[in-house]
UniProtKB/TrEMBL annotation:
It comes from Neotabrizicola shimadae. Residues 1-19 form the signal peptide. The keyword Zinc does not apply. GO terms for molecular function: cysteine-type endopeptidase activity. GO terms for biological process: proteolysis. This is WG repeat-containing protein. Residues 1043-1274 form the Peptidase C14 caspase domain. Gene3D superfamilies: 3.40.50.1460, Immunoglobulins (2.60.40.10), YVTN repeat-like/Quinoprotein amine dehydrogenase (2.130.10.10).
C-alpha cells in the first residue's frame, strides 16, 4: 500500500529529486553550535563565543558575544559583557550594549533596563510608558507578549496602545499582530491591536502561530487551518500534523501514510507526502527529514540540498546552518542564491511558447463575481503594451482570478483561477502573465493554458502594483515597501528602489520610475536605483486607504502627478462635524494641493489619472440612498467634465443600467475613455466622458444561483437567483423553459425541496417561506406544516446524497452540492455566479454548461462547443484563440446546434455529437486568418439625416485574413451583400473603405456592417452606427408583393411530394384575395415544379427587387424538400439529382444564396415562410431528430437575413400524408387568414398569424400524426398587416371584411352585370362594402365577408 501510494503520487504531484552539487560550503562543519540565518547572516558558536558570518564565508562580526538572540529587520540582538545590544547585518552597532534583556528587533524592540521593560523604536528611542510585563515571551511588529505578576499580558504599542490580560492563561510569540492564546486548556488567537479573541472564544485543543493569515489548529487528532474571520475552518483536511503557512504553502502530515508533504491555500497537495518530517519555507528553502537525514527543498518540490545532515536551522537569505557528525557549518543553496534566485527565465519560457498552436476554447463571457458585506474595491486593471488585451484581476484572496479580455472585440478570452492574486499584466511579446500575490510572490503564468511556469518571492508583503516600461525593457513591482525592477530581455533582477510607495509608473521615455505613496509622497529614480527626487506629501488622511491588496483610491500618472483620496472631519457652524472627501495632488517641484470634492460625496472607492495627469476619474458613495457617483474632473480647473449618478432603485438610461456600484475604474491608455468594473459581478464597460455614454460592454452579468432543486426522475432543473426569479431549465430539451417570478429574498437565500415543492427562505429573516410547486410552477406561501418541514430541510441542507449516488457525486470535479435529476442519471452543480454544469453521473463526464442573464437571455453549451441559445444568447460565449477572442456570432453557423445539445444531454446514443465534433474543424476556420476590422467612416455617430436614404461608408481593415463578403444591416435587416470578390472590389485601392446606400425609418436607425475574411469563414464583430431621421413615413399606400414557391414533381423521383405545389398555389391565391383593398396593388408571383430552380428563383427575386420599395410588404412562401448537412440548411430545387454524398452541398440552394436574394428586396416589412420537410429518402437514413436539426438550421438562416421567419420543419411522412389536402403549416396558414383576427380590426397582423400558428400547428400535428410539429418564429421589427381577414378554407365563398367603398342608398342589387334585381341598398344611409371585382360597368360587392351582388359602378364611392 505504501509503495502504491508513492507511485500514484509520482504521477500526480512533484516528488523531490536530488540535485548534483546543489550547494556549497560557506563554513565547514567545525562549529559547536549555530543559530537561525537572517538575510544571509548566520550566528556561529566556536566553543568560546558567538560571531556572525556572512554568505561569502567572511565574518561580519568575529566571535565575541556570549549569546545571540532574535533577528529581524536586518538586525540581531546580541549579548556582550553581560549586557544586550543590537548590531545590523553590516556589523554596525545599532543599539547600545546597556540592557539586561532584549527581544527581537522589530517595529518596536522590547528591552529590559533597570528592572523594567521598555519599547524602543527603530531609531533606539524609548516610548515614555513602560511595557506592561515583567517577563517577556516574544514580540513582533507592535505586539509584545509576556507575563506581569504571573498573569499573561499582550501589550500593543501602535498608535493606540492597549494591554490585554489572559489571567492565568498564556500567550505565545506574536506574528503579524496575532498571538496564540491559551485559556483553560483551550486555544485560540488574540488580535493584539484590538484585544479581542478571534471568533470570541478559544475553542481548539492546540494552535500554532498565525502566519500569512492562516493558523494551524487541532481538534482531537485532526489538524486544519482557520482564517482571519473567526473560528470556522478555512481549510479542512485529514491531517495528523500541521505547521505554519509560509510563501503560500504549509507542511502537513498525511493521515493515511503518516508522511509529510505540502499543501496550498486550497488544501491541495503541491508536494506529495513523502517525508518523515517537513518544515515551513523560509526565503525559498524548506527543511525536510527523509530516512533520518535532513536536507532542503526548493519551492518546485525538488531538493535544493539533498538530505545528508544530522540537523539544521531555518534558512535565511539563501544560507542555512547544518550539522554533520563533525559539527555545525553553513551551506549556501544554489536554488536560493540571492544573486540569481529572483531572476526570471523569460527567454526560455518564451522560446517554449514560440510556434505553438494555441487551439481554441468556448468561454462563457461573464465578468468576475464575488459577494461582500461591505463596499469594497477588489479589482486591478492593466493593458498589454499594444493595447489589444485588457487584464482584470479580482484580488479576492482564495477566490482571486485573472481575466483576459480582447480589447478590440470586447470579449472574454479566458479566466484563470489564481488564489491570492492581487495584480497581473501581460509581458510584452509573449503569452506570459506576470502575477503578483498577497504573499509577495511574483508568479509567471502561461496566459493560454493557465499553467504556472515559474515562481519567486521578491517581497514579504502583498504586491500592490506592477507596471511595464513603455519601451518594454523593464518590469517594476512593489509591495509598498521596496519596489523592485527586472530587466525583461534577460529576466535578471535589475535593481531595488529605496523609495517606499504603493504606486509605480514609468516616465514616457522609460528613463525613470515614479513612486507614489498613500501618504502623498512622490519620488523618482532611475531604473538602476539612483534616486533623482523626493517630495513629501500632505499629512495622511484621517481614514487611511485599505491596504490589503491593490490600493484603489490613489493614482499616479507617467508625467508625474500623484493623487490620493482622503476624508477629513470639518466642524460646522452648528458645532457638529461633517466628513469632507478631498483629493491631495502632488507634483514634482510643486507644493501639494488639496481639491475638495462635492459635499454629497462621502468617500472615494476608486480613482485613476489620465496619461497626461490632467484629468482624474473617480467613483464614490453619495449621501443619497443607494447612489454612487462617477465623475471625471479637470485637475487644472477643478470642474467636472462628466458626472453620472448610479442609483440601483432608479437606473435611468446611463451607467446605472449596467451596474449599481463601481468596484474599480481606469483610464484606457492613450485615450480619455474610462473602464468601469461593476461591483459583485456587474458589467465591465467602456465609458466615453466626452459623449457621456457607454461605448462597449466587456462582460454580461448572469442570473445568480442561490438555491436549486429538481423533481425526482424528471428533467427539470429549478434555480433561484435570490432576486425574484426561479429559472426553470429543461435538461432534456437543453433549453430554458420558463422563468417564474417569486418574492425577492436576497443574498442569504436558502433552498430545499421535498421532491414535490421547492421552498425558499431568507436565512436572516423569519418571514414567510415561499413554495414553488414542481408540477404547476405555481408560487404560494408555504403552509404551517410545510414551513416546519422546510425549516428542518434548510438545517439539513448539507446532508449527504443518497448512498447509491454518493460516490459518483463525490467524484464530480465542480464546486458545491449536486442536484440529481433524470432518475439519478444526471447531476447539476451550480456556482453562485450563475454558471451551471450538468454531468453524466455514470461516467462523470461533463455534458453541458448553461447560464442565463437577468434580462432572460440564455445559453446551453456542450464541451464540444455546440450550443443552444435564446435569440441573443450567443453573446454569452466567446471563442478564445490564443490572446484573441471573438463572439460566437462570428462562427455561429458552425456551432449553433440545439439538436446536438439535446443529443449530448441524452448521452449521445447514436454518436451524432461525436461525429459532428470530428467533422467540425473550428481550428481550420481559425487558420484561414482573422476577420477584418470594421469601423464606420461616414456619417458620424448620432447624425440626423435629411433624406430617408443615405450613403454609408465603412473602413475595412485587413488583419491578415483578407477581405471577402461584406454585409450591411439596418435595424437588424440585411439590406445589402457585397459577395466575395465584389466585397474586395467595393474597397478603394488606396483607402480600405466600402460603401452602401440604405433606407431609413423615422426615428433612430441602427446601421451595422460585417466583413468576412477572404475564405468567407470568419466574420468581423459588427461595427454599429446610429443615424436619426426626423421625417415621417410616406403617405403613399404600400404595395403587397408575394412570391410563392412549391415543388412536387422533382427530377429525382425519390423526392416526389404530394402537396407542396398545391400549397404554394393555394397560398398565392389566398394572399392575392387577402391583399385586395388593403394595399395600393397586389402582385403575386407563383413558381411551381420545373420553374423552381436556382436560375428561376434568381430571376424571380431580381424582377421583384426592381419593383419593391422600402414601404412595401413582401411575403415569401416556400414548400418542398429541405436538407440539413453538418448543421447547414439547403433547399432542394426541382432539377436536383443525387449523384454522390456531396450532391446536396453542391447542388442545393444554401443559406448564403437565400441571404443574397432577401437582401435585394428593399421592403422593411417582410415575412419569409418555410414549409419544408427534412428528407431521409436520399441516403436511406434518417436522424432520430432530423426535424430539430432542420429547425436549428432555419434559425441560422433567420439570423443571416434578419427578417421575420415562420417555419415548421418536419420529417417526410407527415409531408407525404398531408392534412386535409395541405401540409400542416400551410393548412394552418390558410385557416389563420380567416380565424386569427384577435383584435377584431378586420386585418391579420404578423403577430396574430404567428400566435395562431403557435397554437394550432402542434395540435393538428399531434392529432393527425402523433407528433408535435412546433413552428419556429422569429419576428423582427414592428408589427404590420399582411392582409385582410378572409376565410379561404370554407366551402362557402368568402371575401375580406375590409371596407373599400360606400354604396349609395337605394342602389339596385343585381345577380350579374346588367342582370335581374335581387335586392337594393337600404335607404337612409350609405353602406360600407368591399369591392370584389368590376365588369362591363358593374361592380360586384361584399359585406362582412359575404357577396351581396352587383351594382352599377356609379353607385360606388371609393374610401380614402
Amino acid at each position: 500500500m505504501f509503495r502504491h501510494f508513492l507511485s500514484l503520487s509520482l504521477a500526480l504531484f512533484p516528488l523531490a529529486a536530488a540535485a548534483q552539487d546543489g550547494f556549497r560550503w560557506v563554513a565547514e562543519p567545525r562549529f559547536a553550535d549555530a543559530g537561525v540565518a537572517h538575510q544571509g547572516v548566520v550566528p556561529l558558536f566556536d566553543g568560546q563565543a558567538w560571531g556572525l558570518m556572512g554568505r561569502d564565508g567572511q565574518w561580519v562580526l568575529a566571535p565575541q558575544f556570549e549569546a545571540v538572540g532574535g533577528a529581524g529587520q536586518g538586525r540581531f540582538a546580541v549579548q556582550r559583557g553581560g549586557l544586550w545590544g543590537a548590531v545590523d547585518i553590516e556589523g554596525r552597532e545599532v543599539l547600545p550594549f546597556e540592557f539586561q534583556a532584549m527581544g527581537t528587533p522589530s517595529d518596536i524592540t522590547p528591552v529590559k533596563w533597570q528592572g523594567a521593560w521598555y519599547a524602543l523604536d527603530p531609531q533606539g528611542q524609548p516610548q515614555e510608558a513602560v511595557l506592561n510585563i515583567d517577563e517577556l515571551v516574544g514580540n513582533d511588529g507592535f505586539c509584545v507578549t509576556g507575563r506581569l505578576n504571573g498573569e499573561a499580558v499582550a501589550d500593543w504599542r501602535g498608535a493606540e496602545p492597549r494591554a490585554t490580560s489572559a489571567g492565568d492563561g498564556a500567550f505565545g510569540v506574536p506574528v503579524g499582530g496575532v498571538a496564540v492564546v491559551e485559556l483553560g486548556g483551550r486555544f485560540g488567537y488574540l488580535e493584539c491591536q484590538y484585544g479581542t479573541i478571534s471568533g470570541g472564544e478559544a475553542v481548539f485543543d492546540e494552535a500554532r502561530p498565525f502566519v500569512e493569515e492562516m493558523g494551524a489548529v487541532r481538534q482531537g487528532e485532526t489538524w486544519a487551518y482557520v482564517g482571519p474571520w473567526g473560528n470556522s475552518l478555512e481549510i479542512a483536511g485529514e491531517w495528523t500534523g500541521a505547521r505554519e503557512f509560509s510563501e503560500g504553502v504549509a507542511p502537513v502530515k498525511d493521515r493515511t501514510t503518516g508522511l509529510w508533504g505540502y499543501i496550498d491555500r486550497q488544501g491541495q497537495w503541491v508536494i506529495a507526502p513523502q517525508f518523515d518530517a517537513a518544515y515551513s519555507f523560509s526565503d525559498g528553502l524548506a527543511g525536510v527529514n527523509l530516512g533520518g537525514k535532513r536536507g532542503f527543498l526548493a519551492p518546485d518540490g525538488s531538493f535544493a540540498v539533498a538530505p545528508q545532515f544530522v540537523d539544521f536551522t531555518r534558512a535565511g537569505g539563501g544560507v542555512a546552518a547544518v550539522k554533520t557528525e563533525t559539527g555545525w557549518g553553513v551551506v549556501a543553496a544554489e536554488a536560493a542564491d540571492p544573486a540569481t534566485m529572483l531572476n526570471l527565465p523569460l527567454a526560455d519560457l518564451a522560446a517554449a511558447q514560440a510556434g505553438r498552436d494555441p487551439g481554441y476554447a468556448l468561454v462563457p463571457s461573464a465578468p468576475h463575481w464575488y459577494f461582500a458585506q461591505d463596499v469594497v474595491s477588489l479589482h486591478a486593471i492593466t493593458f498589454s503594451t499594444d493595447g489589444r488585451v485588457m487584464i482584470t484581476t479580482l484580488a479576492n484572496r482564495e477566490e482571486a482570478e485573472v481575466a483576459l479580455w480582447d480589447a478590440t472585440s470586447h470579449r472574454l478570452i479566458r479566466k484563470l483561477k489564481l488564489p491570492g492574486a492581487t495584480q497581473a499584466l501581460l509581458l510584452p511579446g509573449t503569452e506570459i502573465l506576470a502575477v503578483g500575490t498577497e504573499t509577495g510572490h511574483l508568479v509567471l503564468i502561461d496566459a493560454v493554458t493557465g499553467a504556472e511556469l515559474h515562481r519567486i518571492r521578491p517581497h514579504d508583503g502583498p504586491v500592490k502594483d506592477m507596471v511595464l516600461s513603455p519601451d518594454g525593457r523593464f518590469l517594476a513591482v512593489t509591495d509598498g515597501v521596496e519596489p523592485a525592477l527586472w530587466s525583461l530581455p534577460d529576466g535578471a533582477l535589475h535593481a531595488r528602489l529605496g523609495l517606499p510607495g504603493e504606486k509605480l509608473r514609468f516616465a514616457p521615455d522609460s528613463g525613470s520610475v515614479l513612486v507614489g505613496s498613500s501618504r502623498g509622497d512622490l519620488g523618482r529614480a532611475t531604473p538602476e536605483g539612483e534616486i533623482l527626487s523626493q517630495i513629501a506629501g500632505a499629512p495622511p488622511p484621517e481614514e487611511p486607504p485599505m491596504m490589503s491588496g491593490p490600493v484603489p483610491n490613489m493614482a499616479l500618472s507617467p508625467e508625474g502627478t500623484l493623487v490620493v483620496a482622503g476624508v477629513r472631519s470639518e466642524e460646522q457652524p452648528d458645532g457638529f462635524y461633517k466628513m469632507r472627501t478631498y483629493l491631495t495632488i502632488t507634483r514634482e517641484e510643486e507644493a501639494p494641493q488639496v481639491l475638495d470634492l462635492p459635499d454629497s460625496l462621502t468617500d472615494v472607492l476608486t480613482l485613476d489619472l489620465s496619461d497626461d495627469g490632467r484629468r482624474v476619474a473617480y467613483a464614490g458613495n453619495s449621501d443619497e440612498d443607494w447612489t454612487v457617483k462617477v465623475e471625471v474632473r479637470d485637475l487644472s480647473t477643478g470642474e467636472a467634465v462628466a458626472s453620472e449618478s448610479l442609483n440601483a432603485q432608479d437606473p435611468g438610461d446611463g451607467i446605472a443600467r449596467s451596474m449599481f456600484a463601481v468596484d474599480r475604474l481606469a483610464f484606457v491608455p492613450g485615450t480619455g475613455d474610462v473602464i468601469l468594473v461593476g461591483a459583485e459581478g456587474d458589467a465591465i464597460v467602456r465609458f466615453d466622458p466626452a459623449q457621456g455614454r457607454i461605448t462597449a460592454a466587456f462582460g454580461e452579468p448572469l442570473a445568480e444561483a442561490k438555491g436549486a432543486a429538481a423533481p425526482p426522475g424528471g428533467a427539470l432543473y429549478l434555480s433561484s437567483d435570490g432576486d425574484g426569479s426561479v429559472w426553470v431549465w429543461d435538461m432534456e430539451a437543453g433549453a430554458l423553459e420558463t422563468r417564474v417570478e417569486v418574492p425577492a429574498i436576497g443574498a442569504e437565500e436558502m433552498a430545499w425541496s421535498d421532491g414535490a415543492t421547492l421552498y425558499l427562505a431568507d436565512a436572516l429573516d423569519e418571514g414567510d417561506i415561499v413554495a414553488v410547486d414542481f408540477d404547476t410552477l405555481e408560487v404560494r406561501t408555504a403552509t404551517g406544516e410545510e414551513a416546519e418541514r422546510a425549516s428542518q430541510g434548510f438545517a439539513d441542507y448539507a446532508a449527504p446524497p443518497p448512498a447509491e449516488l454518493a460516490e459518483a457525486i463525490e467524484a464530480l470535479p465542480g464546486p458545491g452540492q449536486a442536484v440529481t435529476l433524470r432518475g439519478g442519471a444526471m447531476a447539476v452543480q451550480s456556482e453562485t455566479v450563475g454558471l451551471h454544469r450538468a454531468y453524466d453521473l455514470k461516467t462523470g463526464a461533463l455534458l453541458a454548461e448553461f447560464l442565463a442573464t437577468p434580462d432572460g437571455e440564455w445559453l446551453v453549451l456542450t464541451p464540444e462547443g455546440f450550443f443552444a441559445a435564446s435569440p441573443n444568447g450567443a453573446r454569452l460565449v466567446s471563442v478564445a484563440n490564443g490572446l484573441t477572442a471573438f463572439s460566437v456570432d462570428q462562427v455561429y453557423q458552425a456551432l449553433y446546434r440545439p439538436d446536438l445539445v439535446r443529443a449530448k444531454l441524452a448521452g449521445d446514443p447514436e454518436g451524432e455529437v461525436a461525429k459532428a465534433a470530428a467533422q467540425l474543424d473550428l481550428a481550420a476556420i481559425l487558420k484561414t486568418g482573422p476577420a477584418p476590422l470594421t469601423r464606420f467612416a461616414l456619417p458620424m455617430e448620432g447624425t440626423t439625416a435629411e433624406t430617408p436614404e443615405i450613403e454609408v461608408e465603412a473602413e475595412i481593415t485587413d488583419e491578415g485574413g483578407g477581405i471577402g463578403r461584406i454585409e450591411w444591416r439596418v435595424n437588424g435587416l440585411t439590406v445589402a451583400v457585397q459577395e466575395g470578390a465584389r466585397g474586395a472590389a467595393a474597397l478603394e485601392s488606396d483607402v480600405p473603405k466600402a460603401r452602401a446606400r440604405v433606407a431609413l425609418e423615422p426615428g433612430a436607425n441602427l446601421i451595422e456592417v460585417v466583413a468576412y475574411n477572404a475564405a468567407g469563414l470568419l466574420a468581423s464583430v459588427p461595427a454599429s452606427l446610429t443615424v436619426n431621421w426626423d421625417g415621417v413615413a410616406t403617405d403613399v399606400a404600400p404595395d403587397l408583393y408575394v412570391l410563392s414557391v412549391g415543388v412536387n414533381d422533382y427530377a429525382d423521383g425519390r423526392l416526389k411530394l404530394n402537396y407542396a405545389a398545391a400549397d404554394a398555389k393555394a397560398f398565392a391565391e389566398a394572399m392575392g384575395k387577402a391583399g385586395q383593398g388593403l394595399f395600393g396593388k397586389v402582385e403575386v408571383v407563383t413558381l411551381l415544379d420545373a420553374q423552381v430552380t436556382g436560375a428561376g428563383l434568381d430571376a424571380a427575386f431580381a424582377d421583384l427587387a426592381a419593383k419593391v420599395r422600402p414601404q412595401d410588404v413582401f411575403v415569401f412562401f416556400l414548400a418542398g424538400h429541405g436538407k440539413t448537412v453538418e448543421g447547414r440548411y439547403y433547399f432542394i430545387p426541382q432539377d436536383f439529382r443525387f449523384d454522390g454524398e456531396d450532391a446536396i452541398t453542391r447542388l442545393g440552394i444554401d443559406q448564403d444564396r437565400w441571404q443574397d436574394w432577401a437582401a435585394a428586396i428593399r421592403a422593411k416589412k417582410s415575412v419569409m415562410i418555410y414549409d419544408t420537410c427534412e428528407s431521409g429518402s436520399l441516403t436511406g437514413t434518417r436522424s432520430v431528430d432530423a426535424a430539430a436539426a432542420q429547425s436549428a438550421a432555419v434559425a441560422r438562416l433567420t439570423r443571416a437575413m434578419g427578417r421575420t421567419i415562420l417555419s415548421a420543419s418536419t420529417d417526410d411522412a407527415p409531408a407525404l400524408e398531408g392534412y386535409r389536402g395541405h401540409g400542416v403549416l400551410t393548412f394552418a396558414l390558410l385557416d389563420a387568414l380567416g380565424q386569427a383576427d384577435d383584435n377584431g380590426n378586420a386585418t391579420i397582423e404578423v403577430t396574430e398569424l404567428a400566435g395562431y400558428l403557435d397554437r394550432t400547428v402542434p395540435e393538428i400535428s399531434q392529432a393527425a400524426f402523433g407528433l408535435r410539429q412546433v413552428p419556429q418564429m422569429s419576428i423582427r421589427g414592428s408589427d404590420f398587416a399582411l392582409g385582410a381577414s378572409v376565410a379561404v378554407l370554407s366551402d362557402e365563398e368568402a371575401f375580406p371584411t375590409t371596407l373599400t367603398h360606400v354604396a349609395l342608398p337605394g342602389a339596385a342589387l343585381l345577380d350579374g352585370p346588367g342582370g335581374a334585381p335581387v335586392g337594393a341598398i337600404p335607404e337612409g344611409a350609405m353602406l360600407g362594402v368591399y369591392r370584389i371585382e368590376e365588369r362591363d360597368g358593374f361592380a360586384r360587392i361584399a359585406k362582412d365577408g359575404r357577396a351581396m351582388g352587383w351594382v352599377a359602378v356609379g353607385s360606388l364611392m371609393a374610401l380614402q
